[in-house]
Amino acid sequence: MTFLNHTSVSHRVFCLLGIPGLEDQHIWISIPFIISYVIALLGNGLLICIIIIKSSLHEPMYLFLCMLAGADLMLSTCIVLQALAIFWFHAGEISLDQCITQVFFYSSTFISESGILLMMAFDRYIAICYPLRYTTIFTGALIGKVGMIIFLRSYGTIFPIIFLLKRLTFCQNNIIPHTFCEHIGLAKYACNDIRVNIWYGLFVIISTVVLDVLLIFVSYVLILRAVFRIPSLDARHKALNTCGSHVCVIVLFYGPGIFTTLTQRFGHHIAPHIHVLLANVCILAPPMLNPIIYGIKTKQIRDHVVHVLFTKQK
């Protein structure tokens, strides 16, 4: 790989290293990657098929879950396949346009998932706090519009990043110590002033993910307040149980991301390969575990999965 230090020349090809410092262990590291990806494909694919086929599951909560499973598949696919190519074939070379494309789809899908989790929290809020109005509020038309707004928001906020990256001149190091391309991770190799990229990236995070987290928190505060006003212990337990799987998925989605952000901000003494591994855990864990969590904690889905997988066809 040729290194160019002339500000008039911009790199058009970059090299993803994979896990820096652990290159000789890439084959072994690929094992949990491929296992988690296969589980994510099978679990989310089965979840989508069951929800689409079974008319009894054509309810708001399950339709949002179907959207979440689709986003999980897209998120894991656009990251894991690149990582496996690096681990197995040392195919780390990636063009600037491919790198920007990966940034776009990875970031927009992540924001889409955050929006879906927010709507699932709102769904539980209406179901518990206003049960008599639930079916009149969450109509099929509303769910379709909400789904469209979620994806338009994610693509609309990330789309300007394409142009923010395309305007840069990459004349510094073209070796990226990671398994995939990130917005600021790529921008920092430019010779230009990247303050616009940094501030816009911060605006996107605050206006989408941070706002979603705050609204989810408010929703569950209101849900808990309503639940603990229910006099019947059985009804209270049932109401909390309906939120259990969603809370687990929320923690699984945001928890590793928050932890990774904190380690990047304050853990300067932590080895680079730990940062990269944590970033990949944020991508690998939710798609793999989400269908398992919902399959275990949601009786309707669990019953249909058991019927599909274990009932002998006559």
Stated plainly, the CATH topology is called Rhopdopsin 7-helix transmembrane proteins
Mind summarizing the main beta sheet? 3 strands, mixed
For the record, the CATH architecture stands as Up-down Bundle
Q: Tell how many strands the DSSP assignment holds.
A: 3
- The Rg value, from CA coordinates, equals 22 Å
Subcellular location: Cell membrane; Membrane
Keywords: Cell membrane, G-protein coupled receptor, Membrane, Olfaction, Receptor, Sensory transduction, Transducer, Transmembrane, Transmembrane helix
Protein name: Olfactory receptor
Pfam families: 7tm_4
Description of the molecule:
Residues 43-294 form the G-protein coupled receptors family 1 profile domain. The protein is built from 10 helices and 3 strands; from the N terminus they run βααβαααβααααα. By secondary structure, it is an all-alpha fold. The protein has a single domain (14-299), classed as Rhodopsin 7-helix transmembrane proteins (Rhopdopsin 7-helix transmembrane proteins, Up-down Bundle).
Task: Please tag this protein with its features.
314 residues; mainly alpha; Rhopdopsin 7-helix transmembrane proteins; 74% helix; disordered N terminus; OR51/52/56-like; olfactory receptor activity; olfaction
Short description:
The protein is an all-alpha fold.
